[in-house]
Amino acid sequence: QVQLVESGGGSVQAGGSLKLSCAASGYTYTNYCMGWFRQAPGKEREGVATIGSAGATTYADSVKGRFTISKDNAKNTLYLQMNSLKPEDTAMYFCAAERARYCSGAYWLIGTNFGYWGQGTQVTVSS
Fold first, then answer.
1. Is the CB of residue 25 less than 8 Å from the CB of residue 76?
2. What are the φ and ψ backbone dihedral angles of 49, each rounded to 5 degrees?
3. How many CB atoms are located within 10 Å of the residue 70 CB?
4. Over the stretch 72-113, which tens digit does the pLDDT of each residue have?
5. Quick one: 44 exposed, middle or buried, by C-beta within 10 A (0-12, 13-18, 19+)?
């Protein structure tokens, strides 16, 4: 049973930084794709960034140059470093995972392609 638990959310002023973490357990796949998604009230879920088992990354245009996705295989933990935060980054952020040999490109920024999800962590950015 795959379990994903996010942490690190909070409130920050515009221009500030936050680092989200996602602790994964029960994950035995050699090839996988992991990602961060977000959903603001009244808006559709949006793919933020993904990373594959080989380290390939994909970012949404809205976060390129500001957010960095990374992973620590020894700790089974996924991270999202968020810098230069804007009020429009305010949302519930979710960690997701799926078994996949390849994890690159816009396909993996679509949430329905992931089968495992965490419960989310709230990020609020004030102006």
1. yes
2. -160, 150
3. 14
4. 988 999 999 999 999 999 999 999 999 998 898 999 999 999
5. exposed
